[in-house]
Amino acid sequence: MVPGTMTITYRLPRRKPRKRPTLPTVALRGPVPPRRPRCPPDRTARLLALAHHVDRLIESGELTDYADAARRFGLSRARITQVSNLLALSPKLQESLVLQQRTIAERRLRGVIEHVAWPDQENSFNGL
After folding, report:
1. What is the pLDDT along the chain (128 residues), one digit of tens a residue?
2. pTM attached to this predicted model
3. Which of 92, 85, 91 is nearest to 109 (CA)?
4. Given phi > 0 = left and psi -120 to 50 = alpha, else beta, which region is 61?
5. Of 1, 20, 36, 80, which sees the most CB atoms within 10 A?
6. Which of helix, strand or coil describes residue 35?
7. 28 within 8 A of 40, measured Cβ to Cβ
8. ∠ at Cα 81 (75, 87), nearest 5°?
9. Where are the domains of the chain?
10. What is the CA radius of gyration of the chain?
């Protein structure tokens, strides 16, 4: 030991493991209620409307590019690109999204957008 120093050993008390409460099992009676969709019905429609709005602003010259749109709307450039890619959907699919005939998240539509031909998009969309 070095003169002027002191060593103290302290052992922390052990905790008892917590017991997790068990929930009683309940038998369901009647039909199970339908699950809520993960994506709100109007979210994809609103994103499609935003894509059209950004496109109109860029065409009119009010915005210079997607980076300018990202700054203006407070989104990242990547997110603006993802949203603007919805414009590549066929008009029939865009209409069904706006009229909320189908509720599909934008993320799941990215695979549909990869198809260039509109009939291929519609086949992929129907497969979702």
Report:
1. 567 777 777 777 777 777 777 766 666 677 777 776 666 668 899 999 999 999 999 999 999 999 999 999 999 999 999 999 999 999 999 999 888 877 788 899 999 999 999 999 999 988 87
2. 0.67
3. 85
4. left
5. 80
6. coil
7. no
8. 120
9. 43-126
10. 27
